[in-house]
Amino acid sequence: MDRWYWCGSSLTAGEVVCTTANGIRLYDGDKRTGYDDGHLTLTNHRLLWRHESQSSSLGLHLSLVVLVEDEAGGFTSSPKLLLHLAQPPHSKPAGPVAASSNSFIKLSFRQGGCSSFQQALQNAIGERDWEKVVIPSLPASHGKQSGGKTIHTGILGIERAIQAKQEETNQNISHAFEDLKNLMGLAKDMVFLSKSISNKIKEHSGEVSVDDTTRFRSYLLSLGIDDPVTRETYGSATQYHHHLAKEISQALEEPVKEVGGVMLLSEVYCRINRARGLQLLSPEDVMHACHLMKKFDLSLNLHTFESGVQVVQTAGLDQDKVVETTVETLKSHEVDGVSAGDLARECGMPLLLAQERLLQAERCAKAVRDESSEGLRFFPNLFFSRS
């Protein structure tokens, strides 16, 4: 409320009425004040609030309004406009409150008209008509005449400097996006070049070492997918998911083999989106595509454990061999047993996948569990091996 000041009801030079509203209550921050059921007038320079029992009005200059927000009304509350305000100038005329800890006020519209008044207020703030004339009633800034132009300082000068800075920032952002488009175009050329080099390596495999070939393939994978499958390319969702399944299988075949032939579906989702760059996939599209892998006999397929955990694994992965590998790890820790965390650290796999492997070994009667205060640990099933 310290931004309001006492003033007369007459308009200043160049000031015109934009709109009015009745039944307006003023708030200081979230605190209700005694200024209730007044008549609010919006001009192109100020907000004027006056009660019919008062001869003078309360004025608020629009140059102090930084942001306008609306607050919807409820069953027992009226719609409101929330006005964030800048600090008042030292030369501001006296008002109803000398100082306030709040940097915003609220206007409560008890008789409606909040939406139309907000639109008119935002238009008036955007026009900034008060900058076009000198306002003697509110000396917020001192002007110097030079060549018929008014040079503004103080609050108005700061606001204009901020506006100019914002316009410059917007231009810089626009140039940055243009540079990004050029970079994307160059990236496609780089991927095409890398593919041609990869083909040459395949044709002359005898002249290139295995380490060089492996390293170069890792470079290709980091470049991503040059022409990702999109919905716009294919007419139906079935065709889209079919080609998407092929893309995922081709892109992640080597990474899946490198982690032991099994990868959590959540990791598949993250890796394929990282490889596709800006053409991101939804979880539903990745799920549908992975369900089609086995149908089209691809190098990867989707597998669901009894607990519901889903993974993508290499086609033809021998589950019995996976169980035997897990059992071998259990036998090497026959005394203390193995927890899911131990298996994950030793085999370099996610914790969830390590737990599923231990449970799978238990379901095959190759492992037994021990639950204690130290947690859940698994041991090799010696009863099964001796029977």
Based on CA inertia axes, which overall geometry fits? Answer: elongated
Question: Biggest β-sheet: count, sense, barrel?
Answer: 9 strands, antiparallel
Uncertain runs: 134-152
- The CATH architecture of the largest domain comes to Roll
How far apart the termini lie comes to 88 Å
Number of strands: 16
- Structural class given helices, strands, pairing? alpha+beta
Number of helices: 10
Gyration radius (Cα, Å) is 36 Å
Q: Strand fraction band?
A: 15-25%
> What would the average pLDDT be, to the nearest integer?
79
CATH-defined fold name of the largest domain: PH-domain like
Classified by CATH, the class of the largest domain is Mainly Beta
CATH-assigned homologous superfamily of the largest domain: Pleckstrin-homology domain (PH domain)/Phosphotyrosine-binding domain (PTB)
Multimeric state? single chain
Helix content: 40-55%
The H/E string reads EEEEEEEEEHEEHHHEHHEEHHHEEH
How many domains make up the 3D coordinates? 4
